[in-house]
Design a protein that fits this description.
By secondary structure, this protein is of the alpha+beta class. It folds into two domains: 43 residues; 124 residues, Sandwich (Jelly Rolls), CATH 2.60.120.40. The protein is built from two helices and eleven strands; from the N terminus they run ααβββββββββββ. Strands 1, 2, 3, 4, 5, 6, 7, 8, 9, 10 and 11 form an eleven-stranded antiparallel β-sheet that branches. Helix 1 packs antiparallel against helix 2. The longest helix is centred in the N-terminal third of the chain and has 23 residues. Bound molecules: 2-acetamido-2-deoxy-beta-D-glucopyranose.
């Protein structure tokens, strides 16, 4: 790619120089030449990527819980304080992240228990459980999920309560429980 750019630059420059000398390289030819080379370069770039289209969609989100909660059975945790939501693929009103395009995605989640209580949450992909954390008592305890998933466009990822362990801790001054994710590529 760098070499092609260099050739184009060299051609344009030599053409320019030529024109001032003898006038044989007209601006019209110069432009046509430049456009041909530009479209050739774009085609080469497209083939290398395996596509002719440039999809620059990026997606990333992070959200935390503003308050402690006793979760309902199988409740999806709605991390309500949104820190980052590039491309708006995370919906804080449902707690669900929807993949905007096929790709490899990274997700993280940390949950803290209420004092001397237990919480169990799982990272779900559509209707499938993936991995879980189960921080227990005594005291306050935190569990963390780190996961990489290959998703199709429209796949849904969320954090859902499991079994009988429902006491999640957070507070607005210290955002102990959070969920985040982003498109790697
Ligand atoms: C948690 O988030 C709030 C804003 O919602 C912020 O004021 C506070 O400093 C954060 N706490 C920590 C420990 O980062």
């Amino acid at each position: 790619m760098r070499a092609v750019c260099f050739i184009v630059a060299a051609l344009v420059m030599s053409c320019y120089g030529h024109k001032t000398d003898s006038g044989s390289c007209t601006p019209k030819l110069e432009n046509a030449l430049f456009e041909d080379l530009l479209s050739m370069m774009l085609k080469i770039k497209g083939i290398q990527k395996g596509t002719n289209q440039h999809d620059e969609t990026f997606s990333a989100f992070a959200a935390s819980l503003t308050a402690s909660k006793t979760l309902g059975s199988g409740e999806i945790v709605k991390f309500d304080k949104v820190w980052t939501n590039i491309n708006s693929d995370y919906d804080p009103s449902t707690g669900v992240y929807t993949a905007p395009k096929p790709g490899v995605y990274q997700f993280s989640c940390s949950v803290m228990t209420k004092y001397n209580k237990v919480v169990r949450v799982l990272l779900w992909k559509n209707d499938m459980k993936t991995v879980a954390v189960y921080p227990g008592s005594p005291g306050y305890n935190t569990g963390t999920i780190n996961m990489v998933l290959e998703l199709k466009k429209g796949d849904k990822v969320y954090i859902k309560q499991g079994a009988n362990d429902k006491d999640i801790y957070s507070e607005s001054a210290y955002n102990y429980s959070m969920f985040s994710g982003y498109l790697i590529r």
